[in-house]
Write a structure and sequence with these properties.
Layout (H helix, E strand, L loop, with lengths): L1 H33 L8 E6 L3 H12 L4 E7 L2 H10 L4 E5 L1 E2 L2 E2 H11 L4 E6 L4 H9 L4 E4 L4 H12 L4 E2 L1 H4 L4 H6 L1
Helix pairs in contact: 3-4
């Protein structure tokens, strides 16, 4: 009889422990859903540039905006692709001239993984062929690194609204018709 009582106590204890674990797990899930992480409700951005100072400076600039957050940085194409496979981004800001590849190739690859990601090319180059190719592979904007800091914020907001962004200086090289055909 003692054996049975111990067995019943053990089963009851296990049952209570299972209930406690389940309730705690449900509570923690609820807390996670309701808590505001730094990225919650913000536009999630991937920044891709092979120059650490540009990568860090751009991330810092973007993180100062109340509705933007850089959730990943990539110094090369492989890191960018890995990041896109790992998490969801609303926007990727990609350097055109990376070591061993171009922003065009990176854009193609990440758009193949995540077709809805918005891409803004951020480059030192104002070469018309790069600009045209960037739009052909799905970039929504192209801005040069010699623009004012405020311009990149404007460019980001414009492309996120579904518009095309090209600085006034670069736009002189193209007609809107040419870019809309891309």
């Amino acid at each position: 009889m003692v054996f049975i009582v111990v067995l019943l106590k053990t089963r009851f204890t296990n049952f209570i422990l299972e209930v406690i674990i389940k309730v705690t797990s449900e509570h923690m899930t609820s807390v996670k859903k309701n808590s505001r992480t730094p990225a919650a409700g913000k536009i999630k951005i991937l920044v891709v540039d092979d120059h650490p100072i540009v990568l860090d400076g751009l991330a810092e600039l973007l993180n100062q905006e109340k509705d933007l957050v850089v959730t990943a940085r990539a110094g090369n194409a492989a890191q960018a692709i890995k990041a896109v496979k790992k998490q969801r981004f609303d926007l990727a800001v990609i350097d055109m001239l990376l070591k061993n590849t171009t922003g065009i190739q990176v854009t193609k690859k990440i758009k193949a993984i995540c077709p809805n990601i918005v891409v803004l090319i951020f480059s030192m180059s104002d070469e018309p062929s790069y600009i045209k190719q960037a739009f052909e592979v799905g970039a929504r904007g192209y801005i040069t690194k010699d623009e004012l800091s405020e311009r990149i914020i404007d460019a980001i907001k414009q492309v996120l609204e579904g518009k095309i962004y090209l600085s006034k200086r670069l736009a002189k090289k193209f007609s809107k018709h040419e870019l809309n055909e891309s």
